[in-house]
Amino acid sequence: MDQTTPPRRSGIFDLFNGIVQDCKLLMQQEAQLLRDEVKLEASKVGRAASGFGIGAALAGVGGLFLLLMLVHGLHEWIGWPLWACYGLVGLILAGIGLAFIVNARALAGSVSPMPRRTIFTIKENVQWIKENMTLRKT
Q1: pLDDT at 138 (0 to 100)
Q2: Residue 18 CB: number of other CB atoms within 10 A?
Q3: Which of 11, 63, 88, 94 has most Cβ atoms within 10 angstroms of its Cβ?
Q4: Spatial contact of 67 and 75, defined as CB atoms under 8 Å apart
Q5: 108-120 burial code (b ≥16 CB/10 A, e <16)
Q6: Is 81 helix (H, G, I), strand (E, B) or coil?
Q7: 87, 85, 83: which is closest to 69 by C-alpha?
Q8: 134 vs 4, 14, 63, 121, 122, CA distance in Å?
Q9: Model pTM greater than 0.70?
Q10: What integer is the mean pLDDT of 102-130?
Q11: pLDDT on residue 1
Q12: pLDDT band at 6 (very low <50, low <70, confident <90, very high)
């Protein structure tokens, strides 16, 4: 027998050691799978966010050109001075923006940081459990 190699213990110790090693390997593989999956999903989120950003930027530039077209179209159609057409379009846009801000402010005021319905149902469940536990004890 080789003196550098310890004698193998057979029996339940080897079985238990094998199970522990298999569990350890399985947990390492699961952790690696989790890391890979998170990286993949983060990559998808990054690509989606860049797509939204590019789309929003292009839509904004397009909207600006449409507004310029509207101003110059009003100038040609109505015959007002160019500054007055810019003022009219700016006034309309400012009014629409103000309406959105007022609406958003009212909506933000109604937001509750606590999930009231969930807390209420949890309290009901706890109360029900307490009642049923006391009924069973007696």
Answers
A1: 55
A2: 10
A3: 88
A4: no
A5: eeeeeeeeeeeee
A6: coil
A7: 85
A8: 66, 49, 67, 20, 18
A9: no
A10: 84
A11: 47
A12: low
* Sequential DSSP letters for 34-77: HHHHHHHHHHHHHHHHHHHHHHHHHHHHHHHHHHHHHHHHHHHH
**Are 75 and 82 within 8 A, CB to CB?**
yes
- Burial (0-12, 13-18, 19+ Cβ within 10 Å), 88: middle
Q: Which two tokens stand for residue 15?
A: 């079985």
* Cβ neighbours of residue 32 closer than 8 Å, sequence gap 6 or more: none
Could you tell me the two tokens for 24?
Answer: 């350890």
For residues 52 and 46, give the distance between their C-alpha atoms in angstroms, rounded to a whole number: 10
The pair of structure tokens assigned to 10 is 């057979």
Q: What is the pLDDT of residues 30-65, one digit of tens each?
A: 989 989 998 988 898 999 999 999 999 999 999 999
Chain-centroid distance of CA 61 in Å reads 27
